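Need the bound structure for nickel (II) ion, inputs here:
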Amino acid sequence: MILQDIFDKLWKGYVAQNPEAEKIYSCFTEAGEKVENDHIAFRTFFDTRINVDVLARPFLEAGYEQKGYYIFDDKHLTAKHYEHKTISNAPRVFISQLMTDHFSPKLQSIVKQCASRVPEELVIGNELIFAGNVWGPPSYETYEMLRKESEYAAWLYVYGFVTNHFTVSINSLNNLNSIQKVNQFLKEKGFMLNSSGGEIKGTPEELLEQSSTKAGILSVEFAEGSFDIPSCYYEFAIRYPDTDGKLYSGFIAKSADKIFESTDFYKK
Ligand code: NI
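Answer from helper R.:
Posting the output first, comments after.
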């Protein structure tokens, strides 16, 4: 699959679950801005059938290579990030996985059941990133149970393989050229920002500043009926040049740690 097709397909699936992102995108374009993506992100469980490396396949095939490796101790996650070898403005791809063996036997058995329901063609093929929830209709009771241990697990249990967030590259914007201006712009338009750890994560000294919306609330069909729960969010990032004059290209674990909380459960 060619790169543009991959991202177009992912964007379609993402805005279907997060209509707010499309509204924000329109706000930027109506303000005369051209939106480019800094990165997109996926979540998965650490299980050989569906781990980071399985999700990364279509990107590797489209010319990406692995760059960074990250460990998030508090959230029990590891992650890798990928960049395109030749297309310098292709979005980075960030894929994290929950280290399920750090959790209760109950959580582990739910994840094992889920992973065993993933069709073989997705395990061996390149299409897992588009597959959505492949484990079948969720149970609200299970969702609630997972949430007590890990919001990340609960989110993944419901939504499966969709882009968790797209990220606007503030470096590519003309007038809204600082994260403060972007945040102000979003708040004036009525969007809610994730304020866990402050609205802005990271500092110019760390060479990366990020902010994000709170995940939109989506009505999801569970076995027990429909419930409103958080879905995906939209992120905004600005990068600063390193001592070599090139824009920093990695991720800051302690900032990302807080950004993961953008999908935490909250009441509207
Ligand atoms: Ni991100």
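Comments: The first strand starts at residue 37 and ends at 45. The first helix runs from residue 3 to 17.
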